[in-house]
Amino acid sequence: MKQDTATDRKIQREVESELQWTPDVEAARIGVSVENHAVTLTGTVSSFPERMAARRAAQRVKGVSAVADELTVHYAGAALTDSDIAQSISHVLEASAVIPGGSVKASVRNHTVTLTGSVPWNFQRDAAVRAVGAIAGVGYVENHITLPVRPSREALAEKIKDALARNAALAAQEVHIDIDDDQVTLSGHLPTWLEKKQAGLVAWSSPGVRAVRNNITVGTE
């Protein structure tokens, strides 16, 4: 397939502008390349939250079909070992008022943290990722925390459909929902990454959802 180089150059400029516009990202240290509407981010960032902010900034740009995150986290100050990071994680999880005590376990290898365990609600799972990701020395967080099964498949699908219909940004859009056990798969087409993300958040907000596979495509058809 012939590459749309003019459009790719336009997307590259807009991603670079969006990175510069994002206050928690040091755009000068991040490289942007685009091929067939797919963005690749390279360079260094100072923390895991900055890495995620850069990825989200690229996803917000209209026309972006995918984002490859090849960023590395450069740790400022004294070098931290995996043991140092693990101790900090233990303190953070124990001190959290949102995450149920003892519900989340963490392992650290080469500055990558793997979270396991089970919590009642998805916001608690997100809180664990945010809390751990903010710890100095963490380069990446793999989230394997599970959620309990609650409503039937039919009831869950109906709740998600109703929630999508209530959402002003998504009410006029066609989003298809498929539920296998407690995993929700979203498909269809939406104009922007922001709307795709919103649809995913709507699905996650339903009690009993343990996994969301967001297969919605974005961009102009």
TrEMBL record:
UniProt-listed Pfam families: BON (PF04972)
SMART domains found in the cross-reference section: BON
Domain of life: Bacteria
Domain BON: 7-75, 81-149, 152-220
This protein's name: BON domain-containing protein
Species name: Arthrobacter wenxiniae
